[in-house]
Amino acid sequence: MGTYQKAEYYDKAYxxxxxxxxxxxxxxxHMNWSAAIQVIEKVMDEGWRGYKxxxxxxxxxxxxxxGHFGEMLKFNGINYHGYDFxxxxxxxxxxxxxxxxxxxxxxxxxxxxxxxxxxxxxxxxEFFEHIPFDVDILDKLKKDxxxxxxxxxxxxxxxxxxxxxxxxxHKKYDQYLHDVQIVFSAGGTTPEGIDxxxxxxxxxxx
Length: 206
Known about the structure:
Layout (H helix, E strand, L loop, with lengths): L6 H9 L11 H18 L13 E5 L5 H5 L6 E6 L2 H10 L6 E5 L12 E5 L9 H7 L5 E7 L13 H8 L3 E13 L5 E11 L1
């Protein structure tokens, strides 16, 4: 099991430049982001697998990194807000979406603070496995808020938790969320050469 890393760790990782590419070049993540976007579209329109259609004004992305998911979003009339405690990630994210007024990024330590936006759907990709306070974040959501997030099956030096199979995902998150469902999962190899599977999960705050 890895250890919780502070912002400086991620600043150095992003400064190396390996994530300074288009989203589709990060194939193992791009599939997950694409699947999530399809579900968001359905939730906003006709509903999805028991999730009734929901009016959404804001997509709030927790642990947004250097902005690949935000770059991919193309919803008219929806504001995107990305939050991360890495100043390097946020600087890169702002450059990535330059010219898009409805896409904004903020430096925020989500262990100490939390975004305040109404009529929001929450997302969080490649974040929960790195933090010991994911449950605290879920506690801050309002009743019936929808969140779509990803968690991995594998361990690394910065993963404080991982989930070998579907049941492990349900065992943890069913306590805090209604209607937990695996939206998508795909295996592959990380840039570090680690075999993996990443689960994209949807849930609704109890």
